[in-house]
Amino acid sequence: MRKPLSTRTQLILYYLGTSVLVTCLFALLIYFSTTSALKASETQVVEESVDKGGQAIELYIDKLKAFTSLLAGAPDVYAYLEKESEVDRNGVLSLIELLKASDSNLLTVIVVSSDGRIVSNESKLDMHTSTNMMQEDWYVDAINHNSMPVLTSIRRQTFTMDQSTWVISIGQEVKSSQGETLGLVIIDVSYKAISDLIQGVSLGNTGYAFILDSNRSLVYHSNPENFVSTGSLETLIEASSLPEGFDSKSNLLNKHYPILGTEWTLFSFSSLDRLSVVNGHLVRTLMMILAILLVFSLGIGWMIATRFSLPIYRLIDAMKTNRGQEALVAPIPHASLEIDQLRLQYNEMNIRLNQLLQNIKENELYLREAELDSLFSQINPHFLYNTLDTIIWMAEFKDTEKVVSLTKALANFFRLSLSKGDQLIPLAREVSHVAEYLIIQKERYEEVLNYVFDLPVELEHGLVPRFILQPLVENAIYHGIKPKGSPGLIKISAKILDETTLEITVSDDGVGETKKTTESVRLGGIGLSNVRKRIQLIYGEDFGLDTSSVPNEGFKVTIRMPLKFE
User: Fold this and answer.
1) Which of 2, 275, 501, 549 is 20 to 30 A from 420, comparing alpha carbons?
2) Whole-angstrom distance, CA of residue 506 vs CA of residue 472
């Protein structure tokens, strides 16, 4: 069976578990609320950057449209397209140089008439022209995209993967007052101009952006391969159909921005790298805070557990200290109501238990006393018969003095034996009782029995349980001296040990006894074990009697009890 945990350990575990649970819940709450706020903030930043990029493109396209309108409405351009004139041509060139100087991204400004005449900032312009420009595809296409920017190749040649040949063209048709087409004004802007504006969009490390026109044709992408790869283009078209917002699967923020004044739409897919970095930092910070809180909670839990469990341990120690004693457990400092109630219940139980034990002890002592009273009422008939026979024998021989002495000794013996009173009597009275017994036995055994008393005067008033010496003396006579068959000596002595203990010794020089025989001896119903039990009932388990014997040399009984005086 598993050993139960202590109250302190259980309190620490409960407190630590609760702290961990609450801390984790708060950490999760903080994490999700913070990441949600950061995501919203980062989303706003990205969307604003996309809007700004789109707006920058719009402004730039508006600027280019303003340039084409300026050229288309210039008198020199109008005059040149109606009729070739060197003066007007120079005026057109001056105006073109002025426009080109205002924007470094302007590559080529072209004014082409309907009959194929061209004015441009490039002296060697390689373009296919004819006397009827309406038969030229690129010319007709430019008119059809009037004022709308288109991605094309420099000089309107074959489209290649070389980005340096890509331009954004804006053309505006020039008409006469009668509505006839006089010509076309075209401005070619470096593709890099759009690319630079897109670079300002916050795309992150893995994000990307592209522009599609109304025909789902690719206008801009940082990777040129997407212009010729059918699979890549289809992927981009599929991505353009995704709804706006954050895609947790790809971890990208999708944003659509229709560019006003064009047929283009800017699609951005931004990776929220800052959010990932902040999330990682937030997780590490929360883990560190969690670890610190756990250590702190462990310390607080230990203090709380100690605060609540210490009175319990003090109560347990007090219970152990008072075990078997009548002393009550004193109030425990800082104890709770329940622990104090437990203390009071323990004290009440201890009082009742001590009372029960005292009753048992008294009842057992009364039983021993009842055994003595029974013995006294049923005195050994042999002892009485032999004593009376001895008295009769002495009377027949007219030995009056011995008859009187023996009769007096017998009367005193029975008077002392049958007397009622306290459990404890003076040692002198107990010795007198034994002396009367020995006087009677001496008359019976004559020279065979000898005895001597060695009792200090200061111990005459020492208190001893009544009737503890006579059974020991009788044991010495019947089991020591009598079987010997020759004169023997019984010695009764007393002395003080360590100022608090009284030691009484009854010894003989008889045949001796074995340990087993000693413990089973009973004299008239009272044996050595009875004497030992009476002493322990009165004084406790630390006192009693010990026996020692050497076969054919003698037997000794030593009694130890507290030294008390009347």
Assistant:
1) 501
2) 7
Contact 531, 538 (CB under 8 A): no
When pLDDT is cut at 50, 70 and 90, the band that residue 451 belongs to is very high
Regarding whether 147 and 70 lie in a shared domain, the answer is yes
If you search the block for the tokens 């109560």, which residue do you land on?
Answer: 315
Contact criterion met (CB below 8 Å) for 502 and 496:
yes
Same domain assignment for residues 402 and 534:
yes
Global pTM? 0.51
Same domain? For 116 and 162 the reply is yes
**Would residue 544 count as lying in a domain?**
yes
Residue 405 shares a structural domain with residue 527: yes
Counting the structural domains of the chain, the total is: 3
**Which of 328, 357, 378 finishes a domain?**
378
Would residue 368 count as lying in a domain? yes
Helix (H, G, I), strand (E, B) or coil at 449: strand
Asked whether residue 547 falls in the same domain as residue 431, the answer is yes
pLDDT tens per residue, range 307-361? 777 777 777 777 777 665 566 777 777 677 777 787 788 778 878 888 888 888 8
Q: Structural domain of residue 506, as residue ranges?
A: 382-562
Give pLDDT tens digits for 197-252. Answer: 888 788 878 888 888 888 888 888 877 777 777 788 888 888 888 888 888 777 78
Q: Classify 357 as helix, strand or coil.
A: helix
What is the H or E stretch that residue 489 is in?
Answer: strand 488-497
Angstrom distances, CA of residue 254 to CA of 151, 217, 236, 388: 24, 19, 12, 133
Q: What does each C-alpha distance from 337 to 6, 11, 304, 332, 343 come to in angstroms?
A: 20, 18, 17, 11, 10
R_g over Cα of the chain: 64
